[in-house]
Each structure stands twice: as C-alpha cells, then as structure tokens.
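Reviewer 2 asked us to include a model.

Predict the structure of this chain.
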Amino acid sequence: MFEARALSDRVEAVRQAHAPDVQVLDCERDFETLNPAVAEDLGLIVDALEPASYPAAWLPEDAPTLLARYASSDLTVGMPGDGSVVWTRQTDPPIVLVKPRVEGSPDSFVDFLLAEALVQVDLEVPEHFIGFFEATYPDLDRAVALDPNDTYQIAAALFDGWVGLRTRAVFANWHDDHPELAAAWQDAGTRLEDRVAGLPRAVARGETTFGDATELACAALKHAIELPAPFAALDTEAYLDHGPEYAIRWAEKTFDSLEE
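Predicted model (structure tokens):
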C-alpha cells in the first residue's frame, strides 16, 4: 500500500531545511480516510503509532460520523477535503502521503504540494480543524446556519485559510532559494484569481454554494491574492493571531448579514 517516494532535488532541499525526519510515501490507491486496518499498516514502516484523540464535548451532537471517528482514539489518517497530499504526526517519524490522483498533474505543482506539506509539518499546525477550534467548535456550529456537513466544509476551509496565512510567509521567501517552487506557488495563485473574484456573484446567482465559495477563497489565502468580501476579512493579521476566536466571529457576522 505504501512505498517510499523519490523526491526532486528542490523538494528534498525543503525537506532537509524544514522536516528532515519526515518520510514521504506514495499510496497504492486513493482515499479520503484510510481504512483503520490500512492505517495501522503504517506501523510496519515507522517506529511508532500515536493515535490522536479529542474530547467528545468538542463536537456538536449532530457532528458527521467521520468527524466523531477522527476525534476518537482510533487511528484516523486523512479526512474529506484533505486533497492529494496528506501528512500526519500520529506516526513517529511523521509521514507525508501522496495519493495516486496527483498523476497527470504538472511535476512543478506536485513538488509545490509536497513542499507545502513539509512546511506545514515544520510549523506544527494542527492536522485537522478539530485541533484548531478545540472546545469552540460547537460555537462555530451555532454560528453557521447550515447543516452539519456544510458546517464541516466551512470549518475545514477556515482552518485551511489560517494555515495558509502562516505558510505563505515561508513561500514568499522562496524566490531566491527555491525559485521553481516559488514560481509554482505564484502560478497556482494566478489560476485562482478570476474564480475567486467572481465568488460573490456566483453565490448570489446560486451557481455555487456558500460552503464551496468559502473553501475556494480560503484555499486562495496561501497564494496572497486579493479576496472579495466577506472573505477579505480573513486576510488579516488579526486572523493569524486570534485564529478560532476570529473565525467564529467572522462566521457570526457573515451569516447574520446573509439572513438580513
């Protein structure tokens, strides 16, 4: 199921600089969440498994089943919305997993995704939004006037945006040391600009859901491109500094305005 991935010189340089102990593995098949038995197979590759768990009180009563499983003591690697490259610190050493779905993507973009994951491991950000919101997740659930799955999507997006604010400070310094990775970072942002600019119109016309719009806008934060309202309020030092508290207040104000 897992095989060591050969890294390009530029990704290996990032690994050595940010997370030299991390193992990067290719996965045999795609997944959203690894089957627990498959996840435990990682124990044959790493030195130890240390499953994360979170208090049940951090979850609303109607939380999606997968989120409840993630919060339990079961070894859970990968969750919906994690993308093509997943990392975890529930193993010793930490690992980065590359899904087969990256096949066909430009090598430069895949290298950027790998480098991004290595930077995130180095920054020691939580693996999942439940480790970001912690006991305040029910507050976000109350602020978001949507069903539990939509709330999950928005929580994941807000967490992704906060992480993106942290990682882009690293990416911005790659122009000299890692110019090819910096170019891939900028190119990905350029491709998002038109889609992001049109988000308010797309939501107003019912062409996209608010959850999908939030996901796209927050994904754009790491590329330092201009966001339209109400997402522009997330591109701030205040969000970087106050994280969950700021995200919940943003959700409260945003959904209050949508209901007016």
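Residues 161 and 221 are 6 Å apart (CA to CA). The longest helix spans residues 148-171. We have added this to the supplementary material.
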